[in-house]
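Researcher: Sequence recovery benchmark, item below. Answer with residues only.
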């Protein structure tokens, strides 16, 4: 039986917890406490928390070590080289739980999250289970960005941003899996620095289906500025060509739309050098489309959101992803040479 300490279910040295919660963290001093607070109050299952400090320089490390010294359920690993897949693999190596649940360091999970994830996995039907990733923010600009991320008009087929009904999907955010299955697959591919979770899901889908359960809702702190949003989506896009090369069946029309948009805008700029009116008309068509889309999304804006930011957030996501995709194509070309 697990040992009881201060009201906690703490597995003894010879008893494995049911769940290992994995939290990769780097420079998350403003959110790590609320994240861990939401994890450590979970009930209904015995669990341990393995946090991998990925080279933090903002005080996150000190917070983690202090919390681990006071809570026997926590283990802090140090991985100084910034790499999410390497951090996940470090945590996988230390995991003792039957089930592995990833939680992002700038997210919050509700009470009962771990117990429900385990219950769904124990049905035996699913290779992995994940929930709805609901964007939240603190600033007016951030709330506008969160509004865009929660809109199906902006994120299209990425239904984990807005789903209200269970579905079988090709990718789950912050998934829950059988630990032994993750180990058999070799964990996360460290040669895939971006989109490592999507790439992993394509491999584990060969063992069974992935379930998106919207009752597993994750409150995810989004970027608070357009600049950071652009950088985030450029990073996402940059990782896609490598994943698509390894898993061609995972490439969908929604993935190639932003790269084609970038070509369209680049072509419009080139045409405008000799034919300003023609090039300007082509660019104007996109501006008008984004403005109309932003107006529709703004009808569901979060309270306190700066609605003027909404169209710009759409552009930052689309152009950032598209530019990143072409950077990723260049990365592949250099690898071949």
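Model:
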């Amino acid at each position: 039986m697990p040992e009881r300490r201060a009201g906690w279910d703490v597995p003894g040295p010879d008893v494995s917890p049911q769940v290992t919660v994995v939290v990769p963290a780097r420079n998350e001093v403003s959110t790590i406490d609320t994240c861990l607070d939401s994890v450590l109050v979970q009930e209904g299952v015995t669990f341990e928390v393995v946090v991998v400090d990925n080279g933090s320089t903002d005080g996150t490390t000190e917070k983690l070590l202090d919390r681990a010294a006071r809570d026997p359920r926590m283990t802090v690993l140090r991985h100084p080289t910034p790499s999410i897949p390497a951090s996940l693999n470090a945590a996988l190596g230390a995991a003792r739980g039957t089930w592995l649940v990833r939680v992002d360091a700038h997210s919050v999970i509700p009470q009962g999250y771990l117990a429900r994830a385990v219950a769904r996995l124990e049905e035996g039907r699913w290779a992995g289970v994940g929930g709805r990733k609901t964007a939240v923010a603190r600033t007016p600009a951030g709330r506008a960005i969160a509004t865009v991320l929660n809109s199906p008009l902006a994120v299209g087929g990425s239904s984990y941003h807005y789903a209200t009904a269970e579905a079988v999907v090709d990718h789950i955010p912050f998934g829950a899996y059988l630990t032994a299955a993750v180990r058999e697959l070799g964990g996360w591919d460290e040669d895939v620095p971006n989109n490592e979770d999507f790439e992993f899901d394509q491999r584990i889908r060969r063992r069974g289906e992935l379930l998106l359960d919207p009752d597993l809702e994750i409150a995810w702190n989004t970027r608070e500025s357009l600049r950071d949003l652009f950088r985030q989506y450029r990073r996402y896009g940059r990782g896609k060509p490598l994943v698509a090369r390894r898993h061609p069946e995972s490439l969908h029309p929604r993935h190639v739309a932003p790269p084609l948009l970038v070509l369209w805008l680049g072509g419009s700029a080139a045409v405008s050098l000799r034919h300003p009116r023609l090039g300007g008309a082509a660019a104007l068509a996109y501006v008008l489309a984004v403005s109309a889309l932003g107006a529709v999304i703004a009808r569901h804006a979060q309270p306190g959101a700066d609605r003027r930011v909404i169209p710009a957030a759409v552009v930052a996501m689309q152009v950032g992803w598209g530019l990143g995709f072409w950077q990723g194509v260049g990365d592949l070309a250099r690898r071949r040479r």
